[in-house]
Fold:
Amino acid sequence: MTELVGADGIARCTWGNSAPDYAEYHDKEWGVPLHGEEALYERLSLEAFQSGLSWIVILRKREGFRRAFARFKPKKVAKFTDEDVERLLQDAGIVRNRAKILATIANAKAIANLDEPLDELLWSFAPERDARPRTMADVPAVTDESKAMAKALKKRGFSFVGPTTCYALMQATGMVDDHVEGCFRAG
Structure:
């Protein structure tokens, strides 16, 4: 599977070879099991901001997002005001999309109202291990589990959490392992 081998000689999922930022993210983060309210809230928020954009845009602005959204501490973000929204809309360090900013704040409020920890809720949708994808074309964008996660989150007041965003979250946080055959991170 030579198409998986990057310029650095490392076999990884093909997208991981397309830019140094992607290689770093692929090699150290994507698919690694992630737990904790703040860490999962950050990833949920970033996946929502990514909707309609390239992930590399989000990666390159991640520190700006962390600064702008109080290091993704849900209790702090839940207290953001209209003035904070206006401040964020002027912040070139993030993606300045009003709907996504409002969703990030609303999702912080939804976390405060959960009847179980965010970690437990999200991980409850992790599927049993599936077959390893042979190529990136074999990786789904949506699964029954991501549809169920999106439905459960929306029922609890979350927004910008459709099935595709939920599946991307599942991939990013190791709930599923979609590293393709031949990738050094597979399995």
